[in-house]
Structures are given as structure tokens and as C-alpha cells.
Amino acid sequence: METVVSGIRSTGNLHLGNYYGAIQNFIKMQHEYNCYFFIADLHSLTTHPTPANLHNNVKQVLVEYLAAGIDPEKATIYVQSDVPEVAELYLYLNMNAYLGELERSTSFKDKVRAQPDNVNAGLLTYPVLMAADIIIHKATKVPVGKDQEQHLEMARTFGNRFNRLYNNDYFPEPYAFTYGSNLVKIPGLDGKGKMGKSEGEGNAVYLSDTPEVIRKKVMRAVTDSGPTVENQEKPQEIQNLFDLMKVVSTEDTYKHFDNLYNTMQVRYGDLKKQLAEDMVNATAPIRERINDIAGDSVYLSRVASLGAEKARESAGRTIREVREIIGFRKF
Ligand code: TRP
């Protein structure tokens, strides 16, 4: 069975876009691949979080992934910092990662621009740590978006360089992986592109949002002044609302409002009210599980230990072999 690794940023809650896109695919993947999903808390240190924030962020992400349906008995879900073998491999890979190639990485250049007062070595070697995350489990498939393509290429470079240096084929090459057909695209509420947390306040609906917050966000969604011709093409902001409806509402509801739109009788207030209620209902079971799991520290600690144990078994095997290859041998 092929191995899949994916790192989850330890900041930010899951929104509907994450849930209906990547997470649904993770949930299917866990039955078909040897999956390692981890919370990238070591990576998050580049921005110097306070201890309390760091811990709360990791907890929130873990809780939401479990609530969304990642099964800790099927996939290995773990916290990166619970697996010190990752940091060890990162150290080894750093010895063969060159300043020039790290400086040329797009994500590094973006970070330098974004935080010029905190250009630390962790930022520079972020792709090395990411390579360690992946190749420590000898993964070949990494379900990430386009923005991570360059990082994956670097992971292949570092793995291959290790192989060449020690004249073996120890590490396989990891490639970006799109599960099934195309990802479902979930639009945001700002009338523009897809749902995302960097697109501004109110654009994204989070799984942890209360029903009141969801209603408020949906009622504020951008609309136009209404159709002026029968059966006209919907402008983007209206199409977005219908696309969201397609995901959270019944087919009858969708058809009902589509028909009202086509006959120029639609009232956006009604449409949004319906959409908001359907969103509230669609997310209700997850919201409930989020609250249950967040309050169950025994369960959380059991899940984290189990994940760490399974991840360390795999990572420990790699590190033992890597040490042997490098020449750290027992006397
Ligand atoms: N860089 C990834 C992101 O920003 C997170 C990440 C860290 C990751 N390590 C990884 C993703 C390993 C996949 C595999 O989203």
C-alpha cells in the first residue's frame, strides 16, 4: 500500500471549503492508503507563537480533524513535535541543503517580504523540514495544492541528494497527489473566488462558527440588484450562492430558487435565509462533535498518544537505517 503524508498548518480553523474539499478526500484516502496526517507545529515556530497560543492552535486543529471524520484507527494522525525523529532527519538533510537553493524558494521570498523583521533560519529551511516530514515515512503521495509544488520538488531534490551521496536508493520520490476527480470548489461569501481565510472577514464560514455567526455571515453575502431578463446567466456573486446551495441544500430547494431566479421572482433575502439554515444544519453534527471532543481530554490524549506511537514506529525505523547509512554505527 502506498504511503500518503500531509502536513496540516496548525493555525486557523477549518472552513467549509476545507471540509468539502481536502477533508472529504482525506476521509476517503484513509481507507485506501497508509495515511499519515500530522499537525505541523514545528513549522509554526517560525512565527514565534506564545506557548498558550501554540497549544490551543494545535488542539483546535486536532479536534476539528477528528470531528470532521478523520479516523485515528485508520489514519495515523499525530502532532509533529511528538515525533523527534523528524527533527533529527531535518538536521541530516540540512547538511546537504544549499543556501542558494533555499534562498531562491518562492515561499521564502514571500516570507521575507511579509515579515522583514523576522527572517530566521527556520524560515529559510522550512522546505527541508517539510522534506523530512514526507520522506521520514517514505511517502510517495502528498495531497497538497499548487502552492506547495515547489516544496515537493525540493523534497525530491533532498531525498535524491541523500541517495546519491550514499550511493543507494533509500528514499522514494514524493509527488503531489490529487485524490479522485477534481476538488470540489467552494466559493466564499465575498462575491469573488473561493472560500479562504485570507480573503477577509466574513468570506469564510467555519465549522466552529455558531448558528448566529453563520446566519450573520450569509445574510451579509454580496448580491446584485436581481435578474432583469428571464433565464439570464448568473453573475459570479449569485452563482456562488447557488454553488453553496448545491452543497448544503436539498435538490428541491436548489431547484426552487433556481426557478425563482430564472423567472425573475427571486428574493435574495429569502434565498440567503434558506442557505443559512441549510448551512447551519449541514454543519450541526460536526459542530456538536467539535464541542464534545474539545471537552474530552482523555480521548484527545489517547488519540495523540496512539498517533505519536504509530508515527514514531515508522519514523524510528527510517532514522535507524539512515544513521546506519550515514555511518553512525554502534561500537
Ligand atoms: N507547507 C504545508 C502548507 O503550508 C504544510 C506542510 C508542512 C506539509 N509539512 C508538510 C504538507 C508535509 C504536506 C507534507 O500547507
Describe, in plain words, how this protein is organized in 3D.
The protein is mainly alpha-helical and 331 residues long. The protein folds into two domains: 3-177 and 297-326, Rossmann fold (3-Layer(aba) Sandwich); 197-291, Tyrosyl-Transfer RNA Synthetase. Helix content is 56%, strand content 7%. The strands form two sheets. It has a three-stranded parallel sheet with strand order 1-2-3, sandwiched between helices. A two-stranded parallel ribbon has the order 4-5. It binds tryptophan. Tryptophan binds at residues 5-7, 9, 40, 43, 130, 133-134, 142, 144, 148, 151.
Which strands sit side by side, in order, in the main sheet?
1-2-3
Oligomer: single chain
Please report which band the strand proportion falls in: under 5%, 5-15%, 15-25%, 25-35%, 35-45% or over 45%: 5-15%
Q: Gap between N and C termini, in Å?
A: 36 Å
The distinct ligands, each listed once, are: tryptophan
Summarize the structure.
It is built from 14 helices and five strands. It is mostly helical and 331 residues long. The mean pLDDT is 96.
Which short descriptors sum up this protein?
two-stranded parallel ribbon; three-stranded parallel β-sheet; Rossmann fold; Tyrosyl-Transfer RNA Synthetase; 2 domains; binds tryptophan; single chain; 331 residues; 5 strands; mainly alpha
